[in-house]
Amino acid sequence: MASGHHAALIPAAGKSLEVSGVAPNHPRQGEVLVRNHAVAIQPLDAKMLLSGYGGAGAMQSYPALLGSSGAGVVEELGEGVTGLAVGDRVVFDTKALVDPKENLRQGTWQQLLVVDSKTIAKIGNVAFEQAVLIDFPLQTAVAALHLFLGAGEPGTGSENDKVLIWGAGGAVGSYAVQYAKSVGYTVIVTASPKDIERQKQLGASEVIDYKAADVVDQLRTMGPYKYLFTGSGDSASQKALASLLQPQGGEFASVLGGDVELPSNVERVYHPFSQAAQRDEHGEFRAWWYRDYLPKVLQEGLVEPVKFTKREGGLAALQQAAADVFEGKVRGKLILNPQE
Ligand SMILES: NC(=O)c1ccc[n+]([C@@H]2O[C@H](COP(=O)([O-])OP(=O)(O)OC[C@H]3O[C@@H](n4cnc5c(N)ncnc54)[C@H](OP(=O)(O)O)[C@@H]3O)[C@@H](O)[C@H]2O)c1
């Protein structure tokens, strides 16, 4: 049985993280206890910690825990868990940010946490860092493109159809490019000029500088697009995609919402895509993701991971790491080991 462990808690609204000893977590029916060996700082975590962004669901009471994704080793099985064993190496996502009652048990900014066995994938010998580098942002991209826009599973698309990924430079964008390509589409992206070669290696046919004055005109000549997605989610990108949908109108997916004035014939598809698999209404997607697609992608190396930097210092380093992500000082992902 697990004994107490350490967690990086937010003690009160707007306060900095405090690392302290906490009571053990115990797996209930259908859950497992996992020793957490890697977390990647997502912009979502950084924004929630430093600006209170989107925190209403997760942080209705304090102390509170951030982090909804991690990788580690199964230490204990709750009743009724099948298909997992003590000692399995796994990557996982939790309800920490969508269910306030589960926040302290399932937040991944701690050393030992419980996870619903339905949102765990076995990773075999894949490094924990590689697993967390891919799972959360790839899941965001795939949920947006496949679950919400209906772009389909790998191998089911046609290269006669075009997909536009705006803001392909980040983790979500980079994985969106690779996923759209794997489905079979012709992929056109916007990114920084310095990123052109990498984007082409990831599968883009054309790479347009998103800062170019005529970016929308250039994209219009290359369209039309069957699916449109902004991986940066900023208002300029949303307006550009809405413009490309004219005059007939249509929909695009965005990683961010916001108060952006869009034409009435355009629907912006914005959801917490990264948390979609936590919801039972998406049970079919969840089962495909954790049992089929993600283990295959990780174990067969089907996706080129974004760059990462390992930040030393364990849980005590989370506050500064989150600040660095929040201030845009980091390219790629920052990864920490909560056991250090
Ligand atoms: N809705 C959801 O479920 C969900 C899930 C995950 C993430 N998100 C959100 O999605 C955004 C991206 O997340 P991420 O993990 O991919 O972040 P990331 O890896 O840190 O991506 C940052 C990169 O995006 C590019 N970028 C930044 N601003 C841009 C802009 N205005 N236009 C075009 N490209 C821009 C930059 O690359 P270059 O300098 O090379 O252009 C930057 O280095 C964040 O705001 C995050 O909160 C939402």
UniProtKB/TrEMBL annotation:
<dbReference type="Pfam" id="PF08240">
    <property type="entry name" value="ADH_N"/>
</dbReference>
<dbReference type="InterPro" id="IPR020843">
    <property type="entry name" value="ER"/>
</dbReference>
<feature type="domain" description="Enoyl reductase (ER)">
    <location>
        <begin position="14"/>
        <end position="336"/>
    </location>
</feature>
<dbReference type="InterPro" id="IPR036291">
    <property type="entry name" value="NAD(P)-bd_dom_sf"/>
</dbReference>
<dbReference type="InterPro" id="IPR011032">
    <property type="entry name" value="GroES-like_sf"/>
</dbReference>
<dbReference type="GO" id="GO:0016651">
    <property type="term" value="F:oxidoreductase activity, acting on NAD(P)H"/>
</dbReference>
<keyword id="KW-0560">Oxidoreductase</keyword>
<protein>
    <submittedName>
        <fullName>Oxidoreductase domain-containing protein</fullName>
    </submittedName>
</protein>
<dbReference type="InterPro" id="IPR047122">
    <property type="entry name" value="Trans-enoyl_RdTase-like"/>
</dbReference>
<dbReference type="InterPro" id="IPR013149">
    <property type="entry name" value="ADH-like_C"/>
</dbReference>
<dbReference type="InterPro" id="IPR013154">
    <property type="entry name" value="ADH-like_N"/>
</dbReference>
<dbReference type="Pfam" id="PF00107">
    <property type="entry name" value="ADH_zinc_N"/>
</dbReference>
<comment type="similarity">
    <text>Belongs to the zinc-containing alcohol dehydrogenase family.</text>
</comment>
<comment type="subunit">
    <text>Monomer.</text>
</comment>
